[in-house]
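Colleagues,

For the teaching module next term, I've prepared a clean inverse folding example: a structure given as tokens, and then the sequence designed for it. I'd like students to try predicting residues themselves before seeing the answer, so please don't circulate the second half yet.
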């Protein structure tokens, strides 16, 4: 995990961070009030796919990363699988704690990424200004991962 400044990110990843921060404000979170935005880029495509978390009355939430991945698959199709090169998540926490995708979302990213997939956690303040950035890889967040290659026969 590496702390970065915004300027140290590649131009492409700066765009991802901006998109994740922007879409965060669209989150629908009547239960938790915890808004998360996510943006990702897939190999061979310039489109940035975004997602925000969406809750409902039975407390089953769609997570921002899950929504961004679903949007990419909906736009591009699942075959061949879109490959996630990098994904950013943006959020605000009361205590200023840094956060990365939850376990479920790490598994979702793994389905369409690899251990080299770049994951950028963006901590913002209530005004949406960047407080800190951490860059890591899915391999660091989900070591010894289980993937569909275990049960798909080629
Ligand atoms: Zn999640």
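(Answer key — instructors only)
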């Amino acid at each position: 995990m590496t702390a970065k400044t915004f300027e140290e990110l590649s131009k492409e990843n700066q765009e991802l961070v901006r998109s994740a921060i922007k879409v965060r404000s669209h989150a629908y979170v009547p239960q938790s009030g915890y808004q998360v935005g996510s943006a990702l880029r897939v190999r061979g495509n310039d489109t940035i796919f975004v997602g925000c978390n969406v809750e409902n009355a039975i407390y089953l939430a769609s997570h921002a990363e899950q929504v961004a991945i679903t949007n990419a698959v909906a736009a591009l199709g699942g075959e061949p699988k879109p490959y996630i090169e990098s994904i950013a998540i943006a959020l605000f926490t009361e205590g200023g704690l840094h956060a990365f995708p939850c376990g479920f979302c790490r598994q979702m990213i793994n389905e369409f990424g690899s251990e080299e997939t770049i994951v950028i956690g963006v901590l913002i303040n209530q005004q949406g200004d960047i407080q800190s950035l951490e860059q890591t890889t899915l391999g660091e967040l989900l070591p010894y991962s289980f993937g569909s290659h275990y049960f798909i026969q080629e």
